[in-house]
Amino acid sequence: MSATERIPEPRSARPLSLLGADRAALSAWMAAAGEAPFHARQVLAWVHQRGIVDCDGMTDLSRSLRARLAEAAVVTRLPLLARERDVDGTEKWLFEVDAQNGVEAVVIPDEERRTLCLSTQAGCVLHCAFCATGAQGFSRNLSSAEIVAQLWQVWHAGLFRAPLRPIHNVVFMGMGEPLANYAALSPVLHLLTDDCAYGFSKWRVTVSTAGLVPVIDRLAAEHDVALAISLHAARDELRDRLVPINRVHPLDALLGAMRRYASRHPDREVLVEYVMLDGVNDTPADARELVRRLAGIPVKVNLIPFNPFPGSGFARSPVAVIEDFQRRLIDSGIRTLIRRPRGEAIAAACGQLAGRVANRLPERQRFAMAGVPA
Length: 374
Ligand code: SAH
Hints:
Layout: E1 16-17, H1 23-32, H2 39-49, H3 63-72, E2 73-74, E3 80-85, E4 91-96, E5 102-110, E6 113-117, E7 121-123, H4 132-136, E8 138-141, H5 144-155, E9 169-172, H6 182-193, E10 205-209, H7 213-222, E11 226-230, H8 236-242, H9 251-264, E12 270-276, H10 284-294, E13 299-305, H11 319-331, E14 335-338, H12 363-369
Parallel strand pairs: 1-2, 6-9, 9-10, 10-11, 11-12, 12-13, 13-14
Antiparallel strand pairs: 3-4, 4-5, 5-6, 7-8
Bound molecules: S-adenosyl-L-homocysteine.
S-adenosyl-L-homocysteine binds next to strand 10 and strand 12.
């Protein structure tokens, strides 16, 4: 090499979130780096299927691409603060997302299959009256990488050897309102259903929402996943109190969004979640009203026995009342299951997830953010 010749400086690569980037984002990064976009698929397989985030180990990529990736890659790892196991096999994993906040993910085994319940926010602004997460207030949205990291860390913890899948279903029923964090949720849904990444079938990913109507329409247009609606009441006056976002998007609007979702995805039923609160929403009249409001919408209903937490002010409906409510729905032609509480002994059941949240919202502001008058 002559004294005047210089080795060209590599263009400095843009930062890249290895866990949070979906195929489109990785392809765009490749294109910006002057690399072929198809390398995105190789990177997805390394990261999500083989659990390799050290770019030097991605041996089917050229040396120079590995070096550039290594320079740009940001890998989000969440310290595991606690891992608890219930006698029923349910496991709760508490992940630190920053110095002030921790979020929980729950692994729920059922015979040969395992469902993973993921959190999307540290806390929640919606403040549903019967939910432990809502009672804590809100700190912040999680990034796509922080949502995927919960799954990635459980998936690659070595619990099961290939070819056994560690996780069979993913439900967004942990801390937070997934549709209030849609920008971060959307790439995660792509990764879950991408065959180059986790390859879940469209039947095995469920997004649960308290009813952010405009975002339900966006989800319907942009993704094909199962939709669960936290209905909990069939009258506006009651739902306004239990699920305050109802004051912004009342039942008529929400039921309309469910109809549109079902007609956009004609092969699907919308899952209706209905928490059974003793003496609050569990009477025969409530069942009749629910049947009336759901008429003509393809739904299946899950009755969720209320899971208590300190200071909630609610009690679980007696078993006989829940079964009578179920019978009335079934007799009216609505497929209805009672959700078996799982992980109660470790406060991992629906609505019991509290994690660790540094609430940044005073009461008034919390309601304002939910669009609810204080
Ligand atoms: N924000 C989303 C995900 C929340 S958690 C949503 O509202 O759908 C998943 C389900 O648990 C929701 O249906 C929620 O209303 C329900 N839930 C909340 N607190 C509960 C409790 N204490 N007992 C039983 N179910 C509860």
